[in-house]
Design a protein that fits this description.
disordered C terminus; binds zinc ion; 2 domains; 7 strands; 36% helix; 217 residues; alpha+beta; globular
Amino acid sequence: MDEWNIQSRARVCCSCGQPFADGQPYHTLLFDDKPRFRRHDICELCWRKEDAAGVRNAPGFVSRWQGVYETPPQKPDQMYRETAESLLRKLIELGDTRYQPASYILAVMLERKRILKVRDQFVRDGRRVFVYEHHKSGDLFTIADPELRLDQLEHVQHQVADLLEHGLPQPQEQPHPSHTAPCVELGTPDVAQEHPPTAQESAAQTGADAVRMEPAN
Ligand SMILES: [Zn+2]
């Protein structure tokens, strides 16, 4: 199950393809196409052509609301720095479930700062899911409630504070199996680390493992 994801606001009507103009009202329909949510932004005219009851009964329908389109700025508002928002986006892109509670805490922080607002909430597979919308870009963040207990909350808050201060930990280097380490380290480490082993190398490794597993006698 995808418990959290981001979906950007469409720049054109998903039904008729007309670009949205700045300040134009639009309607968002949210569907649960498990495992992912699907966002469908349509213009006022196309919404009027829809049968509202039919939409509500459509497979996977979970929510609908109206928004006002804002033309995105040509340049980012500010120079890059790690903020609660940029961190949340990174964590969601990373998709590592260890950071799911932290993402929830960040979303709550951003809601308090009025950067995100809750558009809807519903229960999916027994868990509460919040649909947050970014007040400027209209991006949607769907985040499941991690149902933190009080004794877990403190740990997650520490994790969030640490991530905000130091950023995400750099991906760890792949540990080299001992029997290949000398070749890699004495050769060209940068190239060797960036490329997955070839079929031959893998086969050689499997062979080495097989030899190692043979009993001593
Ligand atoms: Zn349309």
